[in-house]
Amino acid sequence: MTGSARTAISAPPAANSHWASMRSTGVAAGTFAFEGDGTTAWHRHDQHQLEYASEGIVGVETATARHRLPSRQAVWIPAGLAHQSSFIGARTVSVFFDPALLRDTGGRVRVLPVDPILRAMLIYAARWPIGRTGGDAVADSYFEALSHLVRERLDEELPFHLPASTDPLVTEVMRHTDAHLATASLDRVCRAVAVSERTLRRRFQAATGMTWRQYLLHSRLLHAMTLLVEPGSTVLATALAVGFDSASAFSRAFQAYTGETPSGFRQDRAARPAPAGR
Fold this sequence. Notes:
The protein is an alpha+beta fold. 37% of the residues lie in helices and 23% in strands.
């Protein structure tokens, strides 16, 4: 994802995404480390994936939502779900679980909080790559214990996502809003897409389950996460860049959304964590 939680687009049908399997025969779980920038093709895994970002920003888009993963959190992607991932200055480690090892009935992407214990276990798990040949008793026991811990976290998801839509008008409204966060208003968006306020409100709510103003707020806060982790960022500059009139108003909204103050969020991620997969 780039910019404000990635430009709104319609996801292709699941049938157009390719299946990807990264494991060798006899391996129930393992890890894959990644570092850099880029965007994947639309794809599906035959295993569940839990990706932890020690640095940077990770985005995951599905047919129904666009998720933003700031560093020090993890994203859960269930097996079989068509998705596209993107990375900005990211350093990540993914753990892949056989569905028989960890059952997920939710069937959706979730952004999860990562406490110190889970973080340490995810990083240590990098010693067992998913592409290794054959399993072993120590690895099997370790990933079984990790699966129990992850299963508990699946009920603690964070609201770091925006909706996606197949409605062309709603998609264009999202695209324009995301591109003009500092100055966006309902009147300006309506003029940009040549539609009445009444029609925009009705179509947007029907397609996304949220009002346009709620979407604007969430998009501003998700984009603020990206800005806050950039070197030299300040709370005031970030607030103004995403459309808030003051640092205090931005801080209240940011803390209500993330559970952290903007200053705390920025300072926590400025401290370089242990490298993933190293």
